[in-house]
Design goal:
172 residues; mainly alpha; flat; SAC1 phosphatase; transmembrane helix; transmembrane; membrane
Length: 172
């Protein structure tokens, strides 16, 4: 009806157009997802052509999204609330509600957990002289990584980067 195709042509026969259209659609999905979630869109390779690399990238993007949504998204939400006017700054308030002093555990515990887990993996890969020595090292570093992970889980709400601004009440 728009005159894009000649009389008798079908859209299914236009392979070049289909490829360009699907790529534009997937690129648009990536742009929207980066603005909203901080990573590219998941499963865009379905639109293009599903590959093993696409599956790996979906897993990687999911891990990045999990981290960003839990540990670094509060500031972004606060920024959006300020921009949209959902929060109004009180000039009488002496301190900024955005600045919250972090305790030492927010840096130390994740580093200890990563180091202990890495040492556990290294001990598994580079076995000692005897199996009892290797087992002792693996149990030590495994329990250290599990212990710090349990402490982080127990204090989970302290580690999450929640928005700090409270939305203003709607005036009716």
């Amino acid at each position: 009806r728009l005159g894009v195709l000649h009389v008798g042509q079908r859209i299914e026969e236009q392979a070049d157009f289909e490829k360009i259209y699907k790529n534009a659609w997937a690129d648009n999905a990536n742009a929207c997802a980066k603005q909203y979630a901080g990573t590219g869109a998941l499963k865009t390779d379905y639109t293009r052509q599903r590959t093993q690399w696409g599956l790996i990238m979906d897993g990687w993007n999911s891990l990045i999204r999990y981290y960003k949504n839990n540990f670094s998204d509060g500031f972004r939400q606060d920024s959006i609330d300020l921009f949209l006017g959902n929060y109004s700054v009180d000039e009488v308030e002496p301190a900024s509600p955005l600045h919250v002093k972090k305790d030492w555990k927010f840096l130390a515990l994740p580093i200890i957990m990563v180091v202990a887990f890495s040492m556990c993996i290294i001990c598994l890969l580079m076995a000692g002289d005897t199996w009892t020595e290797t087992l002792a090292y693996v149990l030590f570093w495994g329990s250290a990584s599990f212990g710090t992970f349990a402490i982080i889980l127990y204090n989970g709400k302290d580690f999450v980067d929640a928005p700090k601004l409270v939305q203003k009440e709607k005036m009716d």
